[in-house]
Amino acid sequence: MNNERNSDGYIDVHNQDVPFQMFSGGAHIEIFGNNRIEFEGKYKILEYNSEQLKIKRSKGCLTVIGNNISISNLQKYAFCLTGDIDSIVFE
Amino acid sequence: MLSLFRFVLGYVKIYIVSTNPECFFNLLIEHGISIWAVERHKEYIECCIPFKDYKNIRKLRNRLDVKPRVKLIEKRGLSVSFKKVFKRKSIVYGVLLAATINVFLSNFIWIIDVNGLKQLNRNLVISVINNYGIDLGYNRRKIDSYDLSQKIALDFDEIAWVSVNVEGSKLSINVSESVDSNYNTEPSHLIASVDGVIKEIKTTQGENLVKVGQTVRKGDLLVSGIETIGESVRYSCASGEIIADTNRVIMEKIPKNYMVRKQCDSFENKAVFEFFNIKIPLFLTAASYNQLSFFEDNKISIFDKKLPIGISKRTFVKSENICVDLTLKEAQNLAISRVEAKLREKSIININNYKVKYKEDTHSYIFTIDLNCTENIAKIYNIDI
Q: Is-above-0.95 flag for pTM?
């Protein structure tokens, strides 16, 4: 890891080997076509039904809207969602 | 892979009825309970959780203000099935007992296999091994393969090489027989050992000099070891069988007062319970009659294989030596049976007919038996070159 700091004394997250989102606390989201989403990061479920899933993440909310939405795997820092996804909204 | 892992560990399928199931899910996730196959229906949510976490769910449920209703749909997986099985103690004990018996019995020899025999008898080799105390049911760890192979090789002159291997519960003896040491390698003829009329000729090597029906005298040349091919002479080891009808005269002396061992009516049975090498006597006193005994081995057998478990019974019969006055007919039968036993040792093929003459003195009968036999009269005669 490159520990060089900028003039303000912070580590420059853009100058690292790993994605800078790891330092910023952002979630890692992977979208496979329009029927599968894999989410990694801290989250809380706010609302879930067959048409939408709304989660609270560290920075704002994420809403997945679609049909027949089901959660194929739900773990502490990750979940996987399948179904016919129409849209993803970041708030 | 993940689904296989879940199946091995076991999981339960539940349905949750709640006005706010999201809170319940968040609570489960916070406590590290993984959830999968979540499907939302109109009135309930169906999902799967690990079998080990199912009990914790009920405790966690009580922490919520609005308690959701959780109901079990089904249990799945190997651990769930095993849990059902292991609840039945008899099955557990049965499995443990079977495993213990299996481990215990695998320490013993169950099969003795002898390979590579051509002329030697298998039972003879096995009986020699038995003399060293090794039999079915012998502890395989006590077998010294090298030592046993040396002993077998020393016991049989016919064996050139032997190896003993213990393969699991099988004692495998691989034998290589030596070439017959009596095999003649020097040039030789075949000559007649006795007078006779030739009946059959089976020559394998050498030049045949006689014909079927020909009368030969003792010492006559039958098969020559000197073969003439054109102008050259070749020496060989004449071999083969010359079968001829021969006449023999044998004298046999039978005493008039003949001592025989007579079996009495009283007998005693002594049984011994054998379990592998352990022999437990099933009697209290030692046998008092030790003249004649008959052994009866009643071992348990499965699929024609004898197990080293069973009861061996030895019957001790009281016997006494008595003096019998033989009649002429009895003495004659005894003389003939003795002569037959002697001829059998001399590899006589057949006794065609016999005439018996007898003389009698004060103590014995003297029989002169004139026999007409069929036998191999060929005898090796080495050539001096």
A: no
